[in-house]
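# nightly structure sweep
# worker-07 picked up a monomer target from the shared queue
# config: single-sequence mode, recycle default, output format = structure tokens
# input follows
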Amino acid sequence: MPALELRLHARDRARLDVIATHAARRVAGTHAVRACGELDDALTGAEVVVLLIRVGGMAARDHDERFPVRFGLVGDEGVGVGGMANAWRTLPVLDELAARISACTPHAHVLNLMAPLGVTTRLLVERGHRTVGLCELPAVTRRRWTEAAGDPAAPPVSYAGLNHLGFLWSAGTPAEDHPVLCAAVDSGAVPREIMRRFDAAPLHYLIDVFAAPGRRRVGRAGELAELHRGLIEEFSARPGAVIEAVDRRATPWFQHALAPALHAVLGGPAFVGTLDLPNAGRLAEVPAAVVIELDGCLTADDATLGSVPARPPAVRDMLASLATAEDALYHAARGRDRKLLEQAVDTLPLEVTSTDMRPLLEAICEQVA
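# output follows
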């Protein structure tokens, strides 16, 4: 990539300064790194804005992971009812941030990695920003299963879905006859009965939250918070050094999505991978404005999604249900409409009793310090 000035902005100025000092020494001679205490200072004149914000910090993630368990559901900060809580909390903050981007650098590319990725990307697009949502999971998953299959002659495997809620399948080849999809079952990533149900292999988030609850453990947010505290201490004590503990927090989205996408929008080679953009009629079962995730191509001039082969009927039905719920969630969070939020919860493929609905909605809308 060309030499960059990387401007970092975050809520905690003391921690930001530690990270920026460490980063500056790590890339000295190649890129410049500067901590920006004021958001407008970071944004003004920027060619690219990268969003990696978690509104509410790790306390919010912990809330989103834990409260669904009280209702017999699986907690996650990006999907399911935990993702709804994140969206309810995040969209008003992001709306204000979108206004600052418009004022300070209206023509910048916006590379978005904020959960829940679908609704945050949609808001930025609807506010007029040149935005693409990025997630490495589909490409990394497909690559892992293809390597496990070890069959270079296998028919191609297609991907489509919402962020973290997508499917891999092969048009014209039953899933149980496809070596790549069978490798997913053989590895234990996809239960065989779920592959038979969809004639496709879902990503693990869809399985964990909607199809096979019980696989997900609670407490990841606490583990990450503790790891982050330790890393900040080491960055402060040894700025610029190789910190072995960094390897305990895998970040494949940097290597496989953000870095090549950033290079592409700065005029480098096109990034070919999965992109999150508004549907605009590509999937007939999904509302036009809902953000979908497909194979696509990103350059400095454009972001385009590829064509989509026919989906198995059960995949279409599931995507229709998930997308209808996400559409209702988006409008609920933007309009602070709890009736519409209830409709979104009710549309998800989850079992929520009428007795649980009111306390569940209160938990979704709970303020997290």
